Amino acid sequence: MNELLDELEDMIREERLTELRRAFDDLNVGDIVDFLERLGVKDRAVAFRLLSKGVAVEAFDLLDQALQSEIIEGLKDAEVAHYFESLDPDDRVRLMDEMPASVARRMLRHLDPRERSLTNIVLGYPNGTIGRQMSPEFVAIPEHFSVAQALEKVSKAGDDAETLYTLPVVDHGRLLKGVVSLRDLVSSAGEALVVDLMREADSVDADHDAEDAARMCADRKHLAVPVTDSEHRVVGIFTVDDALDILERAESEDAARHGGAEPLNRPYLSTPVLQIMRSRVVWLLVLALGAALTVQVLDVFEGTIEAMVVLSLFVPLLIGTGGNTGNQAATTVVRALALGDVGTRDVFKVLWREVRVGMTLGATIGVLGFLVAGLFYGWDIGTVIGLTLFSICTLAASAGGLMPLLGKKLGADPAVFANPFISTFVDATGLIVYFMIARTVLGI
Amino acid sequence: MNELLDELEDMIREERLTELRRAFDDLNVGDIVDFLERLGVKDRAVAFRLLSKGVAVEAFDLLDQALQSEIIEGLKDAEVAHYFESLDPDDRVRLMDEMPASVARRMLRHLDPRERSLTNIVLGYPNGTIGRQMSPEFVAIPEHFSVAQALEKVSKAGDDAETLYTLPVVDHGRLLKGVVSLRDLVSSAGEALVVDLMREADSVDADHDAEDAARMCADRKHLAVPVTDSEHRVVGIFTVDDALDILERAESEDAARHGGAEPLNRPYLSTPVLQIMRSRVVWLLVLALGAALTVQVLDVFEGTIEAMVVLSLFVPLLIGTGGNTGNQAATTVVRALALGDVGTRDVFKVLWREVRVGMTLGATIGVLGFLVAGLFYGWDIGTVIGLTLFSICTLAASAGGLMPLLGKKLGADPAVFANPFISTFVDATGLIVYFMIARTVLGI
């Protein structure tokens, strides 16, 4: 498979396009998408045009929104309308969010009235809510239906509905009463009543946070979850594959910010170098600004260092260990927040756990530091190093556990508030602790 | 909701168990699971026993394997058998993997013959393969069936099959020919032929890597994927909710190792402090050992520092910036590997990108460093700092991009080889670069 992809890349580089078109015939859509995701903008546009119409539509649907948007920009208006119309309303809105507003509006105008009104329903909900990610095309079953009636309705629904596997059951006022699965319908006698088969529904409000809703769908293993308005009327449905998209995006974001960069939101190899650079440079400068604090702290203690240069040898080790301890704690708590295992109200529980973890870690590594440093540089220095390691670990674990919760409380991304800043914070405070302990123990 | 959970915790702490049992009646299973995941081992055992039988089975199914295993350990053999039998074969195997081998074997012996043989099929595949995560309970449709015959077979399949929504289509020798969706079956006329409705199947070999297979299922938006043996006979199926479990576990693992710790594989608040400490201490010691290298490097350059103490002020800033740049690159590449956007064969592409990104970042931050350090500490020092920042950023971005690929190539977790070690590596080499440049420019 891998060699095949490399060969296809050679074909496009060497402009052997007839050969490439023939090669596409032997690939399934998923493989073609993998291939498109590795190409730069221009090559991708060329390759995309070689696809047969049906395959192109399917492949377009599976691409990242950022790449869809680039392809759209390279097409003529009539072609654009074709691909745009082939998307589900929720996918269409996600693509529109990627594009310049003027282009998005023009494309919306070209849609047929039915599709346009469905798209407008989804557009009516703010960014970041599940309403913006749901599909307004669902099949609702009236609660007084028999199984036969329900199956009849399902079989007529045709291709438009987002899913037929989880069906909201509603009363006369479209109020959600429960859900019934197609699986239960096909396994039951035709005269059985839907009301006897239906189960209590986990539903979400359309204004609810999208990531939260996606996590609930995944945790509770639902294939689809009905979305309701404030009066509990069904307005849409969202499916587990949308939940997967949302969670994958959120996890890419967490991972990137954890590493001190903005997410690329597109495949790495297809991203221009300058865009990668831009995703990192601001973070790097902000963190360097924070690190400038350490220069000032050391400036204050320059006299102490001059009196005892050996103290400077341990600076990277000490702040490195502090940074690592802080990172460990922050990572654990960011992940627990993302999974919904802890919330901001758990701040004291988290603090108390991390203080204890930090102290046990600090004691272990402090004793080792005391012994090793003492052996090589004398027991005075050993005492300073041991005490500093203990203090820094305790401090770093507590701060690392608290920072993500603080970030969440302030409405920011917990991952932003956590790892990149924890190092800066621990570096500066750790150095102060170090030199205070050194001055006291060594009497400088 | 949150306040309710707190109130429930109060009830269990104050042993108001009748009240708790009544409160459970108003909650749905998902909420009960959220509650159980916040409790310690003993409280969880108490709360679990208060659940009605049906709810207990459903809740047990949704719990993490680590927590299932703890609950099992607190139950009598007869009860154990009940919960164990209620699980699907694939979930059962995952639970067995969590438990001591002797307990697992004893429980296996208590199963009825049919369930035991199904479980043994899954147990026959090695850990980490998709065969170990699939369900052997699927409904296969012979290719010559009509829609009516297929629906008849589906409706008789009953509760056992893992899914009825994606149905493998097979020939006489059980060879996989394609898949047909229940959706297409119910929307078609009864006399239509399955062979005309079926689509080409994305399938995976049972020996295939589980995470890879899960990623494919998610990327291509399949609800289920047939699993085949080496002769392309269908042996099982795995569903998108299993894929979600696998990906979530992989992402928790990546996140934890990225932060320099082992994954907890269980909810944070339910994990004993000592277990959290153990998940971190080995990493911390290994990293500290690596950091001891910096002490030695600085020891070598002690003369240079003594001649010019001001050089020591910039150590945390320089190695911090190097670490940040390396982290950014490593994080991007680890994530791209996890998503399948790059592979080990892309090593030169990645290196060439990261060299360019590192040089542009280094030039930007180097010029700034030159100006600021020059202004405050003289242009000599400014030159040293500027040049060092440029070199370190280039070095760190390249190393950060390569490390995860190297890890993957060596068969290790890319996240292990990336972020925690990148800092250590950049710290030590960065210091050498720094003092070499300083000696040359300043003529010490």
UniProtKB/TrEMBL annotation, chains A, B:
- Similarity comment: family membership: Belongs to the SLC41A transporter family.
List, alphabetically, the InterPro entries matched.
CBS_dom, CBS_dom_sf, Mg_transptr_MgtE_intracell_dom, MgtE_N_sf, MgtE_transporter, SLC41_membr_dom, SLC41_membr_dom_sf
Entry keyword set: CBS domain, Cell membrane, Magnesium, Membrane, Metal-binding, Transmembrane, Transmembrane helix, Transport
Say yes or no: keyword Translocase present. no
The record's subcellular locations are: Cell membrane; Membrane
Q: What does this protein do?
A: Acts as a magnesium transporter.
Task: Spell out the protein name for this chain.
Answer: Magnesium transporter MgtE
- Summarize subunit and interaction data from the UniProt record for this chain: Homodimer.
| Membrane topology value | Multi-pass membrane protein
Domain annotation CBS: ranges: 134-197, 198-253
Gene Ontology cellular component? plasma membrane
Where does the sequence pass through the membrane?
Answer: 281-301, 357-379, 385-405, 417-437
Q: Name one GO molecular function term.
A: magnesium ion transmembrane transporter activity
> Key word Zinc present in the record?
no
Q: Which regions form coiled coils?
A: none
PROSITE patterns under this entry? Answer: CBS
